[in-house]
Amino acid sequence: MKKILLLQVYLIIINAVIAQDFPDFATPSKDDLDLTECPFDKDAAAVVLMHEGFSYSKDDYKLITTQHIRIKILKQSGNKVANISIPFIRINDFEKIKDLEAVTINTEENGVIKKYKVDKKSIYTNKINKVFGEINFAFPSVKAGSIIEYQFKSIKQSYFGLEDWYFQREIPVLVSRYHLKMSNSKQFNYRMIQGVEPEITILPGKDNIFVEMRKVPAFSKDPFMDSEKDYRQRINFKVDGYDSRWGNGQTGTLSSSWGILNARLLFSSYFGSQILSTIRKAVNFTDSAKKITDEYERMQHIYKFVRNRITWNKNNSIYADDLNGVWEKQTADNGDINMLLINLLNETQLDVYPLLISKRDNGRVDTNYAYSEQFNTLLACVIINGKKYMLDATDKYNDEAIPPIFCLNTTGFLIDPKKGELINIKSDSSGYNERIDLLMEINDNDLLKGNAVINNKAYARLEKLILAKSDFSNLKDRYIEQTKIPVSINNYNTTYDTSNTANSDFIEKIDFSAPLAGSGKYNFIPLNLFSSFTQNPFVSEKRYSDINLGYNQSLIIKTKVKLSGKYSVDALPENTELNFQEAGMFFSRTGKVNNAENSFEFEIQIVRNKSYFSNTEYEAIMTAYKAIVNKFAEQVVLKIK
Fold this sequence. Notes:
Structural class: alpha+beta
Number of helices: 11
Strand order of the largest sheet: 1-13-11-2-3-9-5-6
Helix content: 10-25%
Shape: globular
Radius of gyration: 30 Å
Strand content: 35-45%
Distance between the termini: 55 Å
């Protein structure tokens, strides 16, 4: 990403016929065969030699796209790019992938060129969810020096399927070019995302463009960055109008408004009809749930029932089909499970609405375009006493009082019979909240012994609960890795209540010991034991993506250490406060020595009350983290008497 501003962008205007003529398949040039390293990225394990695409629409409204990709494997570690996945839209047979060819090209030791075609029998089509599928295959006989090449044709039932063209990939790209030719009956707009903005010229007829980008650096992921799709170099297209196919001069709009999308979904058999459908075998359950007079308890009861009964198959979707079948099979997509939840909540007279979400790793929602395809997840949104509760029954552990982590700092679309609305999803009132109480002592054998009690609330509770349920030993071992001294955990146990998630803590109790660190007459005691706030994740000088930390954070550490008669306190870290307003961060530390008890104690507080930062705010958060982590790492100095 550091090289983004150095991208060379070229615009080539050529004849429409020439633009769609790809170089002959599986005929790399001598330069391609001889290439041993990427000229602008010497460490690259593989490089895209060429990625070409041509899209055009037909009079029957279909969209045809042909792609041709040629990649050079430069190092053995680059072999992983030889596993190919081609996604497509499978719902209602909207898209078909045709004419797929793939071949590995190797130069043998004697200089002979050998080609190994991908066998049709080794090409597999898999279902991702109700909407998407993918075609998977792996190239044979791949090694350092191989060229792998494939091409295919996508046929979509409508030019509404026009997609963005991505110039940037996970490996560097020598050249990426794309030609779009729409018939005169369609109107489209476009814009470049990230990087240098080229002056794109519309070709004669005002219905097509051709754009080329060279020397595109590999995409690298920054810490706390959302979807790669939001930051990779691409050109974004939207079809938004048409001229009458009858040639009568009439025009119309194809772009939907959010109001139209709201109405369309409510009348859809795959969406709104499911909310009001009758789940025959659930009648006894809903009749029983209606007797719970407290609305929050009723919501909680139904939410727990659905997430305990139905198992998520890991597929995301916003649509549902047969809720009676979901009830029976007890395994389903995200859309099915949460639509079942919405149905039951609605049946028990709770104020519930479908909420469309684009998970953070799926890309941010462009609010200028009302397309349901931007969303990949459905939630239930219940409103009780004016407060919105966002429920995901695919998650077995999330506290119903806090939004799921994957949708924090995103835009959701609330479906409402009265008026759908876009909502910004945040969790300002609940964050990642930890309190650590440390009681330690040092004996005459230079051994530090103690116990810690860690209270975790909200998102801290959720994180620890998931770890405890999935890999308990990993939860314990993580503390050993975090500490800066060779600590031994002699006893570790947890206490938590899964029946009352909104008000319970995840409590950890640790008995530990560690040798003192130091030299000569001096030893050191850290004040940040068992805290995850020990490293600065923002160390790069520049950043091109926004920072989504999800939630706010607070940490309180109270430490008391009793010394043996062998030691005295030589120096304490100073009492201090650091306030970084632009980063929304605060640090305070107060400590004192009790000479009568030969002990000392400290209280440290770290607060971050901001969770989303644009890349223009990077310097502020980088500076704040660096200063606080360094200050937090300061230790007490002990001296042998």
